[in-house]
Amino acid sequence: MKEITAKELEKKLSKGEQVNIIDVREDEEVATGKIPGAKHIPLGQIPKRLNELNKNEHYYIVCRSGGRSGSACQYLIENGYNVTNMVGGMLDWEGETE
After folding, report:
1. Per-residue DSSP letter, 54
2. Which Pfam families does this entry report, sorted A to Z (predicted)?
């Protein structure tokens, strides 16, 4: 499974790179702030919301600490998606939030 650190992802955003970020945390966690532009799909909803994701796109998957996003990545990889797990999750995120 491909991995990226919070710092590396923050650098991509600050350079203006077009990135697709999926936040798999629960509603109450996302309410405390998410990476600007991230799409919120709670982990448990991923199987029934696959139609919202494009297999031709690359996605960065984010959660609180990197565990749930790892599970989401595993599931998405098995279903033919190109994904990267943000290790350390939002606990390591020092960039802007919305």
Report:
1. -
2. Rhodanese
DSSP string over 3-26: EEEHHHHHHHHHTT---EEEE-S-
Active-site hit among 24, 41, 46, 63: 63
Q: What is the band of 95 on the pLDDT scale with cuts at 50, 70, 90?
A: very high
pLDDT digits (tens, 9 = 90+) for 5-55: 999 999 999 999 999 999 999 999 999 999 999 999 999 999 999 999 999
Domains of the chain: 2-91 (3.40.250.10)
The dihedral of CA 64, 68, 74, 78: what is its sign? negative
